[in-house]
Design a protein that fits this description.
One of its GO terms (cellular component) is nucleus. The chain is an alpha+beta fold. It is built from 17 helices and 14 strands. A 4-stranded antiparallel β-sheet has the order 1-4-8-7, covered by helices on one side. The longest helix has 33 residues. The C terminus is likely disordered.
């Protein structure tokens, strides 16, 4: 990024010089080193036990001073001493006041400061050098078009497409917001001399997505050196990350987790993350992953639904549903499906309201009760005597959507590897395809069982006219 002569990539420093940077800036290592493990070169740098470690008997394996944590709060503090950073954060408005927006702009600024083509821009700080140790992340947003085409039929394909579109909108918004700043116009956006590209924005996004962790008392943040630790779930997780009472970042070996010299000190990025999210955010799947764990599928309101425009206008829920598998148990959840499942004859109604400024808004009601948040609809339906009927409709809607997704997966298949496609993406897509297909097939069986159970309920039987009320039967006998 920002190399002289528009060369592609980052300005890099060899990882074996990281201990010098750490020592100079107050980062302390105890019993560990950061480097590449033999036989696992494709995984990049990681945290390695420098000698035998005893779980519960060691102090912090890594200590990071709080001022080095790349958090929104620290970026705001640094902006007080860096007028150029302050300018760009103010220029991008609300986006710069979010953690993600602040971190991405901070990373762009550090790359700018480190660029040998620029002078007298920004304030040099320890993190300007640290970003040179960060590798390019192999996320799907950097795959070739042919490699992304392999994702057809998987839930990762629409996610990557949406992400690329979102990144492009952000990039153009940042350009529009900052091109009025003289030094940005010259060094970033000038047609002949500017060095900022969409690839640069993609890089800082990938760095943030793959390295940000939620630290107690800090929130989402990047913590130098600790963010070098790789992921392992369950019992394989070797260490924990947290902050001490002063806000410093710590990496601690788990109690009872002994390690031998040369072993990899891992942390968890989240044991419940699904296969799709693992590839999307981190670019890998665990070798022992046997389940997709969770899948989110979009769900649309049928075009023939006369209330479709009104439903779309008032909806506040993600338009889809999530299927998850844990310990062999299949579950699904959705706030949106209930809005799709009910209509006017059930008690759903919409009214137009004029606001103070003369604008018109649509209000939703359920049985004359205002529905200001469609995520509350399920709770209202659960209290209704026809709850089982609504459940049956929801299950059928979800089951039909799963059937369509399975058909799409089968039709796409796993194509043979073309010479233009790298081995890594091809293998990842093959595993993702198989894991998602298995979870969808298991979910289909589970939903069929759920549908059968709900169908047999008294409420559904009466609603469908398949059961007679006892009093009705007595009246018919008397009439005869």
């Amino acid at each position: 990024m920002f190399k002289r002569g528009r060369e592609e990539g980052w300005l890099k420093r060899p990882i074996d010089t990281l201990p010098i940077w750490a020592q100079f800036h107050g980062v302390k290592f105890h019993g560990i080193e950061i480097g590449v493990m033999k036989g696992l070169e494709d995984r990049g740098s990681t945290v390695i036990a420098a000698h035998d470690l005893a779980g519960g008997g060691e102090g912090p394996l890594i200590f990071v001073p709080k001022e080095l944590i790349i958090s929104r709060q620290n970026i705001e503090l640094m902006a007080k001493a860096d007028q150029h950073l302050r300018q760009v954060l103010d220029a991008i408005g609300d986006f710069g006041r979010t953690t993600r927006g602040a971190v991405l702009m901070f990373l762009i600024m550090q790359a700018t400061i480190a660029c040998p083509d620029f002078r007298h821009i920004g304030v040099l700080n320890p993190l300007t050098e640290y970003i040179k140790y960060l590798p390019d992340e192999p996320l799907p947003t950097f795959w070739t078009e042919d490699e992304r085409e392999l994702l057809a039929g998987t839930t990762l394909r629409p996610a990557v497409r949406a992400k690329l579109s979102s990144l492009l909108r952000e990039f153009e918004a940042v350009r529009t917001a900052t091109e009025g700043i003289d030094w940005c116009a010259k060094h970033w956006w000038n047609e002949s001399e500017g060095l900022m590209t969409f690839q640069d924005w993609m890089r800082v996004d990938a760095i943030y997505r793959s390295r940000a962790l939620e630290f107690p008392g800090v929130g989402d943040a990047m913590v130098p050196c600790i963010d070098m630790a790789n992921h392992a779930s369950g019992d394989a997780t070797a260490a924990l990350y947290e902050t001490d009472e002063d806000g410093n970042g710590l990496l601690l070996l788990r109690d009872g987790k002994d390690m031998t010299k040369g072993g990899e000190v891992t942390i968890t990025y989240g044991d419940d993350k699904g296969a799709c999210e693992s590839i999307f955010s981190y670019g890998f799947l665990e070798e022992n992953m046997t389940s997709a764990r969770t899948i989110f599928l979009d769900l649309d309101i049928p075009m023939e639904d006369q209330l479709r425009p009104a439903k779309m206008a008032v909806n506040t829920a993600p338009p889809g549903f999530r299927i998850s598998e844990r310990d062999g148990r299949i579950d699904w959840e959705s706030d949106f499906v209930w809005l799709v499942a009910v209509n006017e004859e059930d008690g759903l109604d919409f009214k137009l309201k004029q606001t103070i400024d003369g604008q018109t808004e649509i209000e939703a009601f359920w049985r004359d009760q205002e529905l200001d948040d469609t995520c509350k609809l399920r709770h209202l339906l659960e209290q209704d005597g026809l709850w089982d009927v609504y459940q049956l409709r929801a299950v059928v809607l979800i089951q039909n959507r799963i059937e369509r997704q399975l058909q799409t997966l089968r039709e796409a298949g796993i194509p043979a590897r073309d010479p233009s496609i790298r081995e890594g993406p091809w293998q990842l897509v093959g595993r993702l395809h198989n894991l998602e297909q298995k979870l969808l097939e298991d979910a289909r069986v589970h939903l069929e069982d759920q549908k059968t159970t709900v169908f047999q309920s008294d409420a559904v039987q009466r609603y469908l006219g398949l059961a007679n009320d006892e009093n009705d039967e007595e009246e018919e006998v008397d009439f005869s």
